[in-house]
Amino acid sequence: MDGSSAATEAGSLPPIAQGETIAAIATAIAPQQGSVGIVRLSGATALAIARTLFYAPGQQPWESHRILYGQVRHPQTRQPVDEALLLLMLAPRSYTREDVVEFHCHGGLMAVQQVLQLCLSQGARLAEPGEFTLRAFLNGRLDLTQAEGIADLVAAQSSLAAQTALAGVQGKLTQPIRQLRSTCLDLLAEVEARIDFEDDLPPLDEALVRQQIDAVLGEVERILATAESGELLRTGLKVAIVGRPNVGKSSLLNAWSRSDRAIVTDLPGTTRDVVESQLVVGGIPIQVLDTAGIREASDRVEQMGIARSRQVAQGADLVLLTVDATAGWTDDDEALYESVRDRPLILVVNKVDLVTADGLAALALPHDLAIVHTAAAQQQGIEALEQAILSAIHADRLTPGNLEFTVNQRQESALTQTELALRQVQQTIDNQLPLDFWTIDLRAAIAALGSITGDEITESMLDEIFSRFCIGK
Q1: What is the pLDDT of residues 92-144, one digit of tens each?
Q2: How many Å separate Cα 58 from the centre of its chain?
Q3: Cystine design at 433: which of 101, 376, 391, 437 (Cβ 3.0–4.6 Å)?
Q4: How far apart are alpha carbons 126 and 67 in whole angstroms?
Q5: Pseudo-torsion of CA 95, 101, 106, 112, nearest 10°?
Q6: What angle do CA 196, 199, 200 make, to 5 degrees?
């Protein structure tokens, strides 16, 4: 896509103000965290601002893709603000295809904030969230799937999520989408040619048109099938550990997270609120929630914790119903099971180190559930638990060999619109309607596919997409 094609087709995209330069801090900043902080500028005056603020001793050449060493100085007093490096990336060989400069300062709070303020005092304005990437899109540096891949890469919580996001950045989703759109455009051209020049062309081969539409639909369905996996990699899995008091829920969380996140005692009702831990299992981010033991309680605070436990269990993607092997399957366990059995469920039989093999075999457990045996206090059974979780969510699909790329919710919606439009074309053909009716739904499919890559996009859609980016990206 060249620098003007997206704006030409969309018609309502915001123009980039000529001469306007934007600036932002491009790295996370926190006290005593991070050794380097980056202030990024992009725009027509970026290089001029850098020359005003940066002093490079000696004969260092101010050339594109050079790193200069020196000081950031106040433009009036010439007092040093920071010792820094300056990276020059001049148009069009930059992320935005504009002049881009980066001040690589000392990390922390003060240095980068002072440098940013100096840049703003020289005429730059603070960038909006995602504005650097928006400029890269509007200038033809990236298409929309690549831009969204960058956002996913920044937000990735696991190596597999990062890998699929990188595939989007590299255009691996763009290629099939553009091919599908090209096929639909060719079909539309064939149909419209028959409408405009009916007497000069042979009749349209309906069987061939249907064959091509079937092929496009098959590819659309293949790409759509990655949506569920993509959502799982982006947002992760919410897993709630529930059970009666003192069955070892907190010990299970601590063993699983290899930390002492939860207080463990022999007293029932120790956990009064939900305790959270973030894990990655099989490349999937998992939010583990240890809930208060569910029982009849008179203590007001414990009652509130129990109420929240029930709420968390109902909102979880997967429930680990934990029981005490030494107590067996009790009436309270049965009642709790009935309250969560509509959720995806794994039964965790804990404290198996305290019972004999015969005693464990004699437990009257619901046999229609996936069952995992653990001894959380002894760090036993965690690997089996993780395998059971991965099996429950069919994680065998989430491997680099099976998952080249994934689509996000917006892309899924556009692909669904494409599918519906093409199926309507098939129905139109079956009903022997005039060719004019074919073009209506073909155009709808083309527009939906174009919205994925940004070949057809509106300003409101861009605002929605890029508002989710961080400032500085």
Answers
A1: 999 999 999 999 999 888 889 999 999 999 999 999 999 999 999 999 999 99
A2: 46
A3: 437
A4: 24
A5: -90
A6: 85
